[in-house]
């Protein structure tokens, strides 16, 4: 019975301590405290919800100021340090709030600029107290002591370097969004880019252009009169250029900067010297952008074009003459990237 009574007393004391801690955290001892500023920020945001236009923005602006000031006050009362530095954890939290307030967007919230400038702002917030002596209304400006100047410079410079690396990440990520074909390249010799996903075997946009050209090419050649097809092949450069522009417009590749780095050209050959009326049309999509190999690479789709006799009308028994010869086209798959210069046109 005594043991049970002691356990109840211990539990009651634990609950009382927890309640006292929560009460001390939420209810300030005096009006001039960090809790008051936090409550003012919450009140400002609640009021701004019911306001509109410039009044709402003004109230929300002061809400951010109260939140930043209250957070900075609370985290500097008993500062915890970032391991290995003298930067308070509170400066990191306050720096994030300042960065979101100054560089965030109302529609999107956190932006890349917010993340990039976060370390630098946190470093500056840590360094600012070194330029003041005293506290409150008695504070006055001063230069940091000689022994403190080096650590201030090292801290701020380190934070700026970290911001540069974060900015570099966003730059590379933007490159990959605008130029997705870079993902198919080899990064083994890179000193700062590490591949974390399986490589893309075929550049997506280069292969897309070739795949979308095929049905348009077949429509212009398949079952068309053979003399007309031969004239098409004689002007293959211009005809393929027109088809490529159609693909870029219809597949919205015009919104990608990468569209200017793919060049589509024809390569026409005769695989059978005994039959000069058969042709191999190689459509090559040449990558002119950056590559790990100085020669670059290209993709290829091969199409065989040959004349066939058109089936005569069942109601007649006339033999097909020269005008009844039509073209037949058969295309293969898109090749894997071929390293080196494409073959010369003939």
Summarize the structure.
The protein is α+β, with helices and mostly antiparallel strands and 346 residues long.
Structure description:
- Strands 3, 4, 5, 6 and 7 form a five-stranded antiparallel beta sheet that branches. Strands 1-2 form a two-stranded antiparallel sheet.
- Helices cover 50% and strands 12% of the residues.
- The chain is α+β, with helices and mostly antiparallel strands and 346 residues long.
- It has helices spanning 2-26, 34-50, 53-77, 89-103, 112-127, 146-178, 204-221, 226-234, 236-250, and strands spanning 132-133, 140-141, 262-269, 279-287, 297-309, 325-331, 338-339.
- It has nine helices and seven strands.
- The model is unreliable at 314-318 (pLDDT under 50).
- The chain is elongated.
- Helix 2 (34-50) packs antiparallel against helix 3.
Name its key features.
about 350 residues, alpha+beta, elongated
**Major sheet:** 5 strands, antiparallel
Kindly report the oligomeric state of this protein.
single chain
Structural class: alpha+beta
Shape label: elongated
Radius of gyration: 36 Å
Percent helix range: 40-55%
Separation, N- and C-terminal Cα atoms: 104 Å
Beta-strand fraction estimate: 5-15%
Overall mean pLDDT? 78
Count every beta strand, where a strand is a DSSP E run of 2 or more residues: 7
Low-confidence stretches: 314-318
The helix count comes to 9
Question: What's the helix-strand series?
Answer: HHHHHEEHHHHEEEEE
């Amino acid at each position: 019975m005594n043991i049970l009574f002691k356990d109840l007393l211990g539990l009651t004391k634990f609950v009382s301590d927890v309640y006292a801690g929560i009460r001390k955290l939420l209810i300030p001892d005096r009006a001039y405290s960090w809790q008051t500023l936090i409550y003012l920020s919450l009140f400002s945001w609640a009021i701004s919800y019911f306001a509109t236009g410039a009044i709402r923005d003004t109230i929300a602006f002061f809400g951010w100021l109260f939140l930043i000031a209250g957070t900075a006050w609370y985290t500097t009362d008993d500062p915890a340090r970032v391991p290995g530095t003298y930067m308070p954890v509170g400066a990191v939290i306050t720096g994030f709030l300042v960065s979101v307030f100054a560089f965030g967007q109302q529609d999107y919230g956190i932006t890349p600029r917010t993340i990039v400038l976060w370390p630098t702002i946190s470093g500056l917030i840590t360094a600012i107290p070194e330029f003041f002596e005293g506290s409150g209304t008695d504070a006055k400006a001063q230069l940091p002591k000689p022994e403190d100047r080096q650590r201030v410079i090292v801290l701020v410079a380190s934070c700026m370097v970290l911001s540069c690396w974060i900015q570099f990440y966003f730059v590379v990520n933007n490159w990959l969004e605008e130029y997705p074909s870079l993902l198919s390249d080899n990064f083994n010799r890179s000193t700062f880019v590490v591949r974390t996903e399986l490589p893309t075997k075929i550049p997506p946009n280069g292969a897309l252009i070739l795949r979308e050209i095929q049905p348009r090419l077949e429509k212009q050649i398949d079952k068309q009169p053979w003399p007309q097809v031969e004239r098409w092949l004689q002007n293959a450069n211009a005809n393929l250029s027109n088809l490529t522009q159609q693909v870029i417009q219809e597949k919205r590749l015009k919104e990608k900067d990468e569209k200017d780095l793919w060049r589509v050209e024809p390569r026409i050959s005769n695989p059978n010297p005994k039959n000069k009326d058969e042709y191999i049309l190689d459509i090559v999509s040449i990558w002119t952008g950056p590559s790990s190999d100085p020669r670059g690479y290209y993709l290829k789709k091969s199409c065989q074009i040959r004349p066939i006799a058109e089936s005569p009308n069942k109601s007649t028994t006339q033999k097909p003459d020269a005008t009844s010869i039509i073209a037949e086209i058969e295309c293969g798959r898109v090749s894997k990237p071929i390293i080196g210069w494409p073959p010369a046109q003939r």
